[in-house]
Fold each of these.
Amino acid sequence: MLASLCPNRPRLNGAAFLPQVFAPLVDAAEHGTKLEAAVASLVKILGFDSFMYGTSLCARPDSEHKSYVFTTQSPDWVMRYDQRAYIEIDPRVIHTFDSAMPLVWDQVSERGKSRELDAFLDDAAAHGIASGVSLSIFSAREGHVVVAYNSSVPVINEVRRFDISRCLGDLVLLGVYFHEVFMKTVVDRGLSSSLQGAPLSPQERRCLTLAAHGLTSRQIGAELNISERMVELHVSHIRTKLGVANRQEAIAKAVAEGLIHRGEPVLRAVNMRNTSAPTGFRR
């Protein structure tokens, strides 16, 4: 599902001023070699076990959002995360919607907020993601960029917290630099997202089915009990997976391929929409 990322020797302003610890990533970018090994090595040096980069952005000014993912995590976990719609409850992602400050999290800080979140934490920990740091990165393109550093250590004690605070600047700078590399080597070159061709998750099919019945993102979010912003993120993933330009094309392709059916039951929202006044949607 996730192909290796080989840069095309991009010109990266400011690379000469990066800390020496970034040398493996700089060398990989400049020589056009695969980034996975360099990123994994660098993340280990900074005290973490895996790295995740995800973005939903406009590849061109006249385009709708498209999603990209790069990670050193196992493909099995990536597929599991996608199909179970863990993005809806993942604190690493949710935090970046509302704050530019890095989130330092572990099993103690996040557990007990909901049964769904506890189940996610258990599953993530079983796959080596028990604590870490996540942060949002500014992008000149309209969109959302998340970088996460993950550790199998379940609890961040005082010594661990000190180590993280000491390297926090490097973690932020690495995220910024990796985003620059990714934009120049993948997005600007028009390469396909690694998500393209992946199967739609059950939640994505629900979102698309509701959209096919005329519901807006706000209405879909109300029906599925998720935020409007999360619906838009699902739709971005749907467009990317199906390789289409907009929501209408996604609906047409999904119907043509039998992924969704306009006639199938779509929960309470459609019936309420059809019987409610034309001025709005009511629960």
Amino acid sequence: YSWGVFASALRAEGWTSTQSQIPYMIACAVFAILMVPGGRMQDRFGPKLVLLIASIMTAIGFIFSGLFKTVGGLSIFFGIFFGIAMGFGYATTTPTAIKWFGKEHRGLISGIVVSGFGLAGIYIAPLTNRLIHQFGLDKTFIILGLFFSAIILLFRLFIANPPDGFRPALSGVKPGLKPDDKPATTSQPAASDHPARDYTWRQMMHTSQFYLLWVMFLLGTFAGLLILGQLSTIGQEQAGLSPSIAMSLVMIYAVFNWLGRILTGLISDKIGRRATLLSIFLIQVLSFLFFPQMTTYLPLAIGTAFVAFSFGGMLTNFPAVTADYFGVKNLGLNYGLVFTAWGGGGVFGPFLGGLVHDLTGAYLVSYHVSAILCFAGALLSLLVRAPRESAAGTGSQIDPVETASGS
């Protein structure tokens, strides 16, 4: 989420806007695709092995990006190797945490965990900017690679899946194993905070809900990432800001992205996922419609905050709604498949943003496209419902979270 700082430094060395987005675009695609095998490994072998691979791929990706700082070099090492690291790391942390908690807290827990992803921009953006000015971009890649991989290697020691048969507590009830230590079945459902059954990835992909969620995620991600990788440049060109002041927009984005992830998770636990997603998409629509008029620092900072808050909320609510609809047993793989939509948005959003800027010298078309896509996402959020079970399952009842919340 601090790529705008890297992209600005690359453009200062003669790269075009489109070229500066290619490694980022590839990283987003690989990130999303590798969520699938990473999630499957997490479900089967636990998070420690997956995070070990993520640590190694992070070191390779960043160090060799510093040694081979060309479009091809960064595309391979930042795009592919670090993309693998992101996919494996993200596929591990969020599903692992969600598995420890029941549905009534799922949005909040998801928000807390994924907020780390958004919050990173608060310290990575200024740290990267300072390192670039002091050591140059080449050495900055190497320093960050060593730092990131060491942190992952350390904290992986404290992460584990819950034991087989574990059932999270309802409020005021002690968590632990079910009395008979047997997993729930469709004919004998677990407590009301669980879905009627845990879907396999094949069963999930036979539901219309999977495809609706996938398209919604794609639309929102495309819109958000279309401008995220260009944020520093937008500040400099649209509002006439200095590079250091424009960089503060990246930090503002990080702060409100972090807040959005936590607060929308808490809100969705209260009012339901669909109502929250509808609100998120509508906030983005209004923000992008007014973005062209934001030609001074304060309005641009406010617009950035709204986009960041709502975009962060999406990254909280999609893993939570995936767990609500399809269960937690196979959540790593199932959410990995939903998350491939993020990869589609990550590829085409930044690419279109860079291409539009190279062709027109501005971002007006990008803003309009983003508003239209978010409006389409809002419409789809009105259509999606929790899957109905077959008559042989649970009597064709809609998921209790949807009915109880009125959403």
Amino acid sequence: MSLSREKLSLYLKMKLMPLAWRFTAPAQPEKWIFIVGCYNSGTTLLHKLLAQHPLVGSLPNEGQFFNNVLPYGRQFGLPRLWALKPDLFHLKETAEGYDVDRLKRQWTWFYNHSYRPLLIEKTILNMARTRWLQQHFPNSYFIAIYRSGYAVAEGIKRKEGHSLEKGIMQWSISNDILMDDLHYIKNKISLKYEDLTAHPFEEVKKITDFLGIETLPEAVFDKEFSIHHIEGKISNRNESSLKKLDNDELQLMNKVAGTMFEKLGYPML
């Protein structure tokens, strides 16, 4: 029953959005929090965890679905492959032509608690927009999460039917852009999916300390979360992806993205 009410509320908000956002005052939180990371890297899990905090307001899904200001990959025939044409999406501080006020009003319309002091947003393409977001969202904080390229590429192939080569290119190029741009970001913290799933309480505490708020109670980490329609407790699912890859596929990914494996400290198989 609760889920049905949530779906109905979201449906009505989507229907009303073309008019409602114009009469919605843009949120002015103490901190904007952006989770950034490649597809299948744990961004959804991290978002769901932080959204449990009483000081954090969140969107019902990725912010890309709740605005018509910023471009997205599928719009250009690049579902889960935006990094293969990065010039279409990579925004730096001086990028023009994007209505920031409109974007904030549209997101505000969808936040569950837009009045809370911290508002969190998770859109994969924000990997390419950290510098632009920092420029236009005062007091913004960035949480970067990384995951082994083998699991990421396998997930991209499984969910979209792309080749493993394209999947590993997406992982390598997008992380390269993110890591380069993070040099310009003032407030940032990084973690790995493997550490988050192994020690969720400790890793999230690092993040809440970074954000200057109390950490979540340990009971939160015993909950079951629905991640891409799979219900379960927090766990590392890399092994299930690796079982789907043969040696030739592993060697192909090593050849394409060996440098990024080394940069992120992931051993090559």
